[in-house]
C-alpha cells in the first residue's frame, strides 16, 4: 500500500493518505448515465450539511457553500441497508460503505477518492471566481463538463452562481465520476444544497412551514439538516426548467465516456485526477475530445507531485506531449495560470490544444 500526502479530509486540511497499489489488470467500470429523477429517488429523507468556506482572490474574501457531511452519507448507507442488495438499480455499490471506512483513499479501478473534498478543487473555485471578475467570464449559455467531479465543488460553485443570477442560464452541466455511489451520495446532494441556499429556492421556502426543523435557514454559513420532501423535489426540478439548466450525470471510466461523447463543451474542468501515470493517456484523450473546437476553457488543477504513486504536473505535461498523444491528435500546450509554492505545491494549468 502506497502512502502519500494527498491533502484532504472533512475540513480540507493536509494529511497523509493512502492508496492501494495498482493491480496489473484493472477491470474498468463501464459507462452509465444517471437521470435526475433517479438521483432524486436516491436521496435520503434528511441531509445533514456543514459550511465549506473557500478563499477567493476577489474583494469578497471567500465564498461559502453548503456541503453534505461525510458521516451523513455513511449513516444513509447503514440505515437503508443498501449494501444488502447490489442488484438494485438505485443502489450504491456494495463496497461504498467500505470506501467510507477504509484507511485508503484510492482503490484503482474500484474507487477513485470522490467521496471526499480535495484541496485543488478549492483552488479551481478561486481561479474561476477570479476569471469571472477579471474577464467577465459568464457561465450562462455554456456547456460545462467536470471530469472526475467527486464532491463537485467547482461545478457546484458555478451552479450556485447560476441559481443566484435568477435569469435564464441556458446552461448544460455534465458531472462525471467513476463511481455511481459518489454521484448518489455526495455530488447530487451538494447540488440540492446549492439550490436551496440560493434565491432560486425562495418561492419554495416562502410556501414552506415556519418550523425550522422543516424549513432551515437558507444560509450556507450555518450547519443544519435539510428535509427532502416531495415538494422540495418538485420545486428543484421546476427551477431547473425555469432557468433552462440541464444537468447530466455519468459514471464509469474515462475511456468509456470518451466513446459516448456526442457533444463538445465550452468549459472542461478537472482537479486531483493526474495522480496515476497509467491513467494519463485516457484522461488527456477525454479532455481533448470533450473540448469545443473554438477557444474552449480547459483547466487542470493538481498537486505538483503525488508522493508514492508517480503522478504529478511534470508527468502530465510529458504525457501531453508524448508521441501517442500526438498520433491521436491530443497533444497540447500547458499554460500555468495559478500556483501555490508553500507546503505541497499546487498548480492550475490551462490546456491549449494543438
Automatic annotation (TrEMBL):
Record's keyword annotation contains Transferase: yes
Location within or outside the cell: Cytoplasm; Nucleus
Highest taxon of source: Eukaryota
GO annotation, biological process: methylation
Keywords: Cytoplasm, Methyltransferase, Nucleus, S-adenosyl-L-methionine, Transferase
InterPro entries: Methyltransf_16, SAM-dependent_MTases_sf
Enzyme Commission number(s): 2.1.1.85
Family annotation (Gene3D superfamilies): Vaccinia Virus protein VP39 (3.40.50.150)
Gene Ontology CC: one annotated term: nucleus
Record keyword Manganese present: no
Top enzyme category: transferase
Protein name (record): protein-histidine N-methyltransferase
Lineage summary: Eukaryota, Fungi, Dikarya, Basidiomycota, Agaricomycotina
Amino acid at each position: 500500500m502506497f502512502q502519500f500526502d494527498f491533502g484532504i479530509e472533512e475540513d480540507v486540511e493536509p494529511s497523509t493518505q493512502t492508496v492501494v497499489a495498482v493491480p496489473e489488470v484493472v477491470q474498468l467500470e463501464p459507462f452509465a448515465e444517471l437521470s435526475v429523477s433517479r438521483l432524486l429517488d436516491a436521496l435520503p429523507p434528511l441531509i445533514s450539511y456543514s459550511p465549506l468556506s473557500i478563499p477567493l482572490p476577489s474583494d469578497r474574501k471567500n465564498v461559502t457553500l453548503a456541503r453534505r457531511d461525510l458521516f451523513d452519507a455513511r449513516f444513509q448507507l447503514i440505515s437503508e441497508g443498501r449494501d444488502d442488495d447490489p442488484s438494485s438499480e438505485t443502489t450504491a455499490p456494495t463496497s461504498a460503505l467500505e470506501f467510507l471506512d477504509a484507511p485508503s483513499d484510492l482503490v484503482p479501478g474500484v474507487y477513485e477518492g470522490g467521496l471526499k473534498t480535495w484541496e485543488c478543487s478549492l483552488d479551481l473555485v478561486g481561479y474561476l471566481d477570479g476569471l469571472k471578475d477579471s474577464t467577465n467570464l459568464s457561465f450562462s449559455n455554456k456547456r460545462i463538463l467536470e471530469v472526475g467531479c467527486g464532491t463537485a465543488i467547482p461545478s457546484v460553485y458555478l451552479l450556485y452562481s447560476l441559481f443566484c443570477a435568477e435569469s435564464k442560464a441556458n446552461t448544460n452541466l455534465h458531472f462525471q465520476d467513476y463511481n455511481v455511489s459518489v454521484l448518489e451520495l455526495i455530488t447530487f446532494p451538494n447540488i440540492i444544497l446549492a439550490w436551496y441556499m440560493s434565491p432560486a429556492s425562495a418561492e419554495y421556502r416562502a410556501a414552506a412551514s415556519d418550523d425550522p426543523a422543516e424549513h432551515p435557514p437558507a444560509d450556507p454559513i450555518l450547519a443544519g439538516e435539510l428535509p427532502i420532501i416531495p415538494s422540495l423535489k418538485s420545486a428543484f426540478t421546476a427551477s431547473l426548467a425555469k432557468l433552462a439548466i440541464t444537468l447530466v450525470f455519468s459514471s464509469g471510466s474515462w475511456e468509456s465516456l470518451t466513446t459516448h461523447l456526442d457533444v463538445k463543451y465550452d468549459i472542461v474542468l478537472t482537479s486531483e485526477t493526474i495522480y496515476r501515470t497509467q491513467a494519463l493517456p485516457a484522461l488527456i484523450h477525454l479532455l481533448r475530445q470533450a473540448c469545443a473546437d473554438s477557444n474552449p476553457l480547459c483547466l487542470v488543477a493538481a498537486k505538483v507531485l503525488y508522493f508514492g504513486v508517480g503522478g504529478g504536473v511534470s508527468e502530465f505535461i510529458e504525457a501531453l506531449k508524448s508521441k501517442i498523444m500526438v498520433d491521436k491528435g491530443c497533444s497540447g500546450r500547458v499554460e500555468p495560470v495559478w500556483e501555490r509554492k508553500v507546503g505541497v505545491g499546487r498548480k492550475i494549468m490551462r490546456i491549449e490544444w494543438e
